[in-house]
Amino acid sequence: MALIGSEDLLQGGMDRAVELMALAASTVLKFGKPKIKIAAIGPEEFNDIAGYCEGLAEISPLFDRDGRSFVDLSKKDARALLVGAKRKSVYNFDCGACGFRTCKELNQAEMVESIINGPCCHFVVYDVHMAANAAACAAYYLGLHCRVFQTIGAAAPACEFIEDVDFCVGVAVSYESQDPFFDRHKYWTDEEWAERFAKEFPSFTRRFMGAAED
């Protein structure tokens, strides 16, 4: 057969890996009715998502930090699987977990548009996160660096990278020699960490956020 270089092997492997992640997300246990939407993005879309996050930097320290990370990812061959759904119930369980007595009341409630839209059927939320976890598990077994992002999930519908969803989760993957997803504290100085989190998350600490350094 013809020789295939390292770069082509890695990029081709990443394409197939994201497809397998989509299969895992599609076949994972759900609550019975098909409603999950799946799409995928690459470096160019990461650049657009970084711009969206930059626009929210003043109101959300997490978007501020992750947006800087996504600028770096846009320069690499990183990808993300997007998993989303509509917020309304399709089950008629009338479980009350959403805060409404019946699914009908939830479905008639006006949507509150925010970074994450709601109110949402809890079983739909479970389905999306189970699908995202299955995709992340597939990435793990394929040897990829992986992280589940709410920030990617919030930005992707706004950037029209996934359609007909009210909320979304992003599962980012990379084959870089070093994991790019768990060193995001490098985008803030210690002083910035202390200032921003004291303001935005007064009950939290840096250690709670997983970025403390001894």
Low-confidence stretches: 206-214
Strand content: 5-15%
CATH topology of the domain at 6-87 and 115-167 and 174-182: NADH Oxidase
Q: What form results from the Cα inertia axes?
A: globular
Structural class: alpha+beta
CATH architecture of the domain at 6-87 and 115-167 and 174-182: 3-Layer(aba) Sandwich
Secondary-structure element series = HEHHEHHEHEH
Query: Which bin fits the share of residues in helices?
Result: 40-55%
**How many beta-strand elements?**
4
Any idea what the radius of gyration is? 19 Å
Task: Summarize the main sheet.
Answer: 4 strands, antiparallel
State the distance separating the first and last CA atoms.
Answer: 52 Å
Number of helices: 7
What is the averaged pLDDT score? Answer: 87
Sheet with most strands: strand arrangement? 1-2-4-3
CATH class category of the domain at 6-87 and 115-167 and 174-182: Alpha Beta
Provide a descriptive summary of the structure in words:
The chain contains 7 helices and 4 strands; from the N terminus they run H-E-H-H-E-H-H-E-H-E-H. Helix 1 (6-27) packs antiparallel against helix 5 and helix 2 (43-55) packs antiparallel against helix 3. It has helices at 6-27, 43-55, 61-73, 103-108, 122-141, 150-158, 190-200, and strands spanning 37-41, 79-85, 145-149, 167-174. The chain has a domain at 6-87 and 115-167 and 174-182: NADH Oxidase. Helices cover 44% and strands 12% of the residues. The protein has 214 residues and is an alpha+beta fold. It is globular, with a radius of gyration of 19 Å. The protein has a 4-stranded antiparallel β-sheet with strand order 1-2-4-3. The longest helix has 22 residues, at 6-27.
